[in-house]
């Protein structure tokens, strides 16, 4: 699947201590509606919750079904756009502090290949990136992939990643994740067929919101679980929690190295999660879910792209069982980085070395190079602190 480079970035232990990891064991439909003013967001609520909300306001239950259709089919952005609802009900919702929860697009950049990267402006004036990646195959079938962010920035600071260089601010709420997909559908005027949690942030450090957004995208936006991928660089204990949910979505693990020593130089958080422990958790994930794990491997010229690295990677994967798949990602250059993109010949030699050792390989086609495609690049051009209010901000 064509996506952008995975994000990561700073010592994992520090991120865990700072409270960045909001993890739950069961993100099922909430048993009661949120009541605090700051959480009164409609986007992300399931139909049973919306029906209960309507009843709480003295309306008949079917008004909740109408709310659901307005949010996920009509995709209305504001309560005043709920033309199918009585004006009195709309007024009561607004007066009670309810809002849709859609965030405006601050800027959009279109690459020559049709990829569109957007900066989305959140309520606290922070910016996040989301990317729409259109692909049409030889048979004329069209696929639109949404690459969504799960955090504002990232606390893990992988050495090659632009997102980590921009700093970390906070986790995203479920509606802020779902809204990215709806923004892509709006700008492309086409439904999103695939979702990858590979944008800004480490999804496993915001697993509660990621799982709630995943539920909404599946049940409400109607994107199949098998069409979604959750990516991680590896956070201790979280793969086990994710496995317990037995999702039909793909788990993508960012390796970037075939041994612990090299991986620590590329992914600093690997010091807190040894490669052997990570691979053991991946094996357990496959046994519990029946879903093969996909491994992301960013090729850095002269660092991890040699034939000896390919051989070591294949040997490690064979020691850990079967059913694995490797996505090779030629490095997407970012300003100020010491890393270089490998030549195509080196990329193909690496892929051939894996295939000759019976490892399934895909070389990811880099998309949006002329639109600051690497995660975090476009945001870093515009923001490292919250935006000041400005009438020049554009929205769709």
Structure, described:
- The chain is built from 13 helices and 12 strands.
- The chain has helices at about 10-15, 45-55, 60-75, 85-95, 160-165, 175-190, 205-220, 240-245, 260-265, 275-290, 305-320, 345-355, 375-380, and strands spanning about 105-110, 115-120, 125-135, 140-145, 150-155, 170, 195, 230, 250-255, 295-300, 325-330, 360-365.
- The strands form 2 sheets. A 10-stranded mixed beta sheet has the order 1-2-3-4-7-8-9-10-11-12. A two-stranded antiparallel sheet has the order 5-6.
- A hairpin with a 5-residue loop joins strand 1 (about 105-110) and strand 2.
Radius of gyration: 21 Å
Oligomer: single chain
Helical content class: 25-40%
Number of contiguous helices: 13
Beta content: 15-25%
Order of helices and strands: HHHHEEEEEHEHEHEHEHHEHEHEH
pLDDT averaged over residues:
85
Q: What structural class is derived from the secondary structure elements?
A: alpha/beta
Largest sheet: 10 strands, mixed
User: How many beta strands in the DSSP annotation?
Assistant: 12
- Describe the global form: elongated
Side by side, the strands of the main sheet go 1-2-3-4-7-8-9-10-11-12
Termini Cα gap? 27 Å
Note poorly predicted spans. Answer: 1-37, 388-396
């Amino acid at each position: 699947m064509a996506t952008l480079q995975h994000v990561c970035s700073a010592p994992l232990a520090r991120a865990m201590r700072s409270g960045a990891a909001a993890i739950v064991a069961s993100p099922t439909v909430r048993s009661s509606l949120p009541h605090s003013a700051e959480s009164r967001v409609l986007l992300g609520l399931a139909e049973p919750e919306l029906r209960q909300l309507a009843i709480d306001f003295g309306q008949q239950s079917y008004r909740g079904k109408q709310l659901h259709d307005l949010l996920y089919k009509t995709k209305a952005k504001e309560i005043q756009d709920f033309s199918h609802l009585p004006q009195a009900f709309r007024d009561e919702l607004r007066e009670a502090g309810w809002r849709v929860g859609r965030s405006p697009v601050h800027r959009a950049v279109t690459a020559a290949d049709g990829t569109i990267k957007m900066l989305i402006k959140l309520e606290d004036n922070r910016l996040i990136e989301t990317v729409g990646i259109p692909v049409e195959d030889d048979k004329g079938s069209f696929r639109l992939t949404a690459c969504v962010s799960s955090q504002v920035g990232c606390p893990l600071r992988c050495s090659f990643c632009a997102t980590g260089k921009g700093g970390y601010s906070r986790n995203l709420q479920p509606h802020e994740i779902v809204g990215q997909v709806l923004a892509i559908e709006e700008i492309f005027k086409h439904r999103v067929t695939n979702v990858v949690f590979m944008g800004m942030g480490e999804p496993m450090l915001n697993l509660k919101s990621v799982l709630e957004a995943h539920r909404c995208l599946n049940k409400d936006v109607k994107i199949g679980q098998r069409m979604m991928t959750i990516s991680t660089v590896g956070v201790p204990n979280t793969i086990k929690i994710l496995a317990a949910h037995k999702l039909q979505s793909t788990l993508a693990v960012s390796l970037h190295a075939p041994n612990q020593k090299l991986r620590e130089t590329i992914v600093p958080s690997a010091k807190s999660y040894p490669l052997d422990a990570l691979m053991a958790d991946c094996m357990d994930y496959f046994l519990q879910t029946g879903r093969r794990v996909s491994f992301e491997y960013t090729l850095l010229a002269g660092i991890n792209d040699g034939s000896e690295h390919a051989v070591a990677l294949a040997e490690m994967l064979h020691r850990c069982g079967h059913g694995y798949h490797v996505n090779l990602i030629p490095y997407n250059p970012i300003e100020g980085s010491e890393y270089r993109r490998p030549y195509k010949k080196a990329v193909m030699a690496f892929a051939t070395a894996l295939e000759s050792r019976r490892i399934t390989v895909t070389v990811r086609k880099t998309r949006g190079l002329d639109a600051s495609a690497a995660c975090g690049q476009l945001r870093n051009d515009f923001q490292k602190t919250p935006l000041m209010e400005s009438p020049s901000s554009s929205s769709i």
